[in-house]
Each structure stands twice: as C-alpha cells, then as structure tokens.
Amino acid sequence: MRLVATPDNPIPPGAIVAAARAVDGVRLRTARWVPARAARGTVAILGGRAEFIEKYFETAARLLDRGFAVASLDWRGQGGSERQLKNPRKGHIDDFSLYQRDLDALVDEVLDPSCPRPWFGLGHSMGAAVLLAAARAGRCPFERLALASPMIALANLKHPGLARLLAETLDLVGLGGAYAPGGSSKIRALAPFAGNPLTSDPARYARTAGVVAAYPQLGLGWPTVGWLNAAFRLMREFEDPDFPRRTLTPILVLVGSEDRVVDPRAAERFAARLRAGRLIMIDGAAHELMVERDVFRERFWAAFDAFIPGVEAEARRAAS
After folding, report:
1. pTM, 2 dp
2. What DSSP line would sit under 145-173, residue for residue?
3. Beta 27-33 vs 69-73: how paired, if at all?
4. pLDDT (tens digit, 9 = 90+) per residue, 250-306?
5. Which of 2, 15, 49, 233 could make an SS bond with 126 (beta carbons 3.0 to 4.6 A apart)?
6. Which CATH architecture has domain 16-319?
C-alpha cells in the first residue's frame, strides 16, 4: 500500500502507510504522521463517501503545523481499501455499522500502538455520521469530535419518504448491489468544476481531480442501492430527538450555508439538541469545508482551534 503524490498535492513528510485488518478480514489502507515537535495529541481524519487519504494532505499538513500527530484511513469500499463488490467503481455497504469495524481497526492497529493521546476525531460528511453513531453507542474513542458537514440529512430531497421507500424496496428485491437510480460508474471527482456542489475553489477541486487522474483506482462512481438504503436507515436515527441528547462526547458541528449535498438546516437542528455541542455556520461555504476557498477555510480553522484540544487537554498538558 502506498500514497499517491502529484505536483500540486505532495505527501506531507514522514508518512507511515500500513494495512490494517478489520475484524471481518477487510483490508484497509491507513496513514499516520508525527509532528516535528512534541505532539499535543492525535487528530484522526475520517473522510466522506468516495474520498481518500490523499484528499486531506493539506489538512494533515495544517494539523502537523499545529503540533498534532495525524492518522487517517480509507473506509472499506473506497480509496485504497478493499472494495465490497467485484466492480471497484461501486461505492457499497450493507449497513453503516460495518464502518464501526473500520474505526475499531484504526484504533487497534494505528492509534493504540503508535499515536499519542489525547485523541480527537475530525470527520467529514459520511465520516462525521459514522462518528456520531459511534458516539451515541458509547464506542467513540475520541475525547472530542469536530464534524464538518455531517450527513444528518441529504439536501434538496423533495420527497424524502418516497426516496427511502424506493431504496428499501430495491434493496429488498435483490438490487442492493446495483447503482442507485440515475447512477453510473463515472468517477465523481472527474466531473467538471462548473456547477459542482462540493466547493467553490477551482484550484483545490482540480487538485483532487489530478490525484484521481494519476491513480484512477482511487476513484468511485455513484453509491449503490444498498449504500443508499443503509444511509437512509442511519439518517432516520438522527431524526430521533433523543439521539443528540444522549450523545455525551463534546462535538463541534461546522456546516456551510450553501451546502447542496447535506442539509445544513438539519445539522443546525441536530446540533441545537446536543448536550455537549455547538454549531458554526460558515456563510457562503459549500459542502467540502476543508477543500474550500481560503476565506471559508480560515473560519473553519479558527473554530477548530478554539475547540480542539479543549480546556481539559491543555490543562493536562500544562501540568505534565
């Protein structure tokens, strides 16, 4: 296993790449970095659907500059990790609980043996949803979570109940491995910049496309019916008012007001019910806050710096 560098997306120095095995044998690609000075802790970067470690090289570098060790992984079925179906372009999962096995593998094989505490989770979109589910179940290994554009609900669904019913029905009749209606094997990262719902930054958008062009094996097409059905099941859980109220991990939710992938208002309602959480709405930003224009990214980092590592961790550090 290796990481892919391109001229405008170099690998942060000192990367340690390794394979991890989930409890069910799925092979996962992981990477970690150690800062030049004594670490303030470790931040685990957990990306969204169809993403890969390379997309977050710039984020990893920013964290290293802040004195954090960094760890990351590719979820099963995407990036450099083992795919779930014979067609490697299909983003598939039968149930989101399987991602918990990937998170456990990251803890057991990367964080526990090699990464200094305290640990913090930085999740984006689908990765943020996985972290929320882990926190609600009492299985979150992180002291604090910073969640960018969490997948609480999908944006612009005119008939969400009908969409859920369609995905469930198609899955039940054996079409779980087929592309979701309207989908194809076209790699999303190679779509034209104009009109994209992810970022308003053309250079960073092109940078991601350049990585996939150099190493197409990282690319993913549309999700499958099974993935969509599993995602809807998890998002239904988020609709329960008791879900956020019983989630005790301190959480910072960051969303862009112009997000057209996930619903920023649903994230706002969810965050308002958290027992130990707050929301930062970044006006004008799209879905990928860490791959947005600098004017939005600096607001993201200001909020992150104010929240992580947190008063408790800094107090322990000062006393040690």
Report:
1. 0.95
2. EEEES--SSBTT-S-HHHHHHHHHHHIII
3. antiparallel
4. 999 999 999 999 999 999 999 999 999 999 999 999 999 999 999 999 999 999 999
5. 49
6. 3-Layer(aba) Sandwich (3.40)
